[in-house]
Design brief:
CATH superfamily: GAF domain
Number of strands: 6
CATH topology: Beta-Lactamase
CATH architecture: 2-Layer Sandwich
């Protein structure tokens, strides 16, 4: 019960921090730090799916070495691929599970178990959150639900932040276009202000 209360309190704090963040990178960092702290685990990382390359790219990590992060491209089709199709996947032993793409690198990093949870918004997969432990870990339903809930909140916040930044960029472009258009509409052409020439007949009609 105490562990559940701690997770609940952390969930509230992290979700509030995420909801107030306007930068996708900050959302990702707050999420991984919150999960690592709450579960008392070795590390946590948030990956975003690159639909062009089918690779999971690290958006933020906490507790992992640069060597492990730079071990090579993480294929969404080879690295715990079931996460993106079927939901959360728990790997108890990194050296005895064919679903892991880099088992030897994980062992060298001191990783024993991994929990992988998809980040999904409106039926679309944005990426995954992965939890790493230094000791073999039997992930409980509470662990999975906690990480899964934060993954969905983080995903929604990242999407909103991306949209907000894109919208702001569009607004800036429109403002620039309006300023140019306003400048053009108020600028005199080379012939503006020059007295108009009249023919003799027009002159006689205007000045009889």
């Amino acid at each position: 019960m105490k562990e559940q209360l701690i997770n609940y309190e952390t969930f509230i704090k992290v979700s509030n921090a995420i909801s107030h963040s306007k930068e996708p990178e900050e959302v990702a960092l707050i999420t991984v730090e919150g999960i690592k702290t709450a579960l008392g685990i070795k590390a946590c990382a948030l990956f975003l799916l690159n639909n062009k390359t089918d690779e999971l790219e690290v958006a933020a990590s906490y507790g992992l070495s640069d060597e492990y992060l730079n071990k090579g491209p993480v294929s969404a089709l080879r690295s715990i691929a079931a996460t993106l199709k079927d939901g959360p996947v728990a790997i108890y032993d990194v050296m005895d599970d064919p679903r892991l793409q880099y088992p030897f690198e994980a062992q060298k990093e001191g990783i024993a178990s991994i929990l992988s949870v998809p980040i999904q918004v409106n039926g679309k997969i944005l990426g995954a959150i992965r939890v790493y432990t230094a000791e073999p870990w039997e992930f409980t339903l509470n662990d999975v639900n906690f990480v899964n809930a934060l993954a969905q909140i983080a995903g929604l916040s990242i999407k909103v932040a991306r949209y907000s930044k894109g919208l702001m960029s569009s607004i800036d472009v429109l403002k620039s276009m309006q300023e140019v258009q306003l400048h053009r509409s108020t600028r005199m052409t080379p012939y503006e202000g020059v007295p108009k020439s009249f023919s003799a007949e027009e002159y006689s009609r205007l000045y009889p």
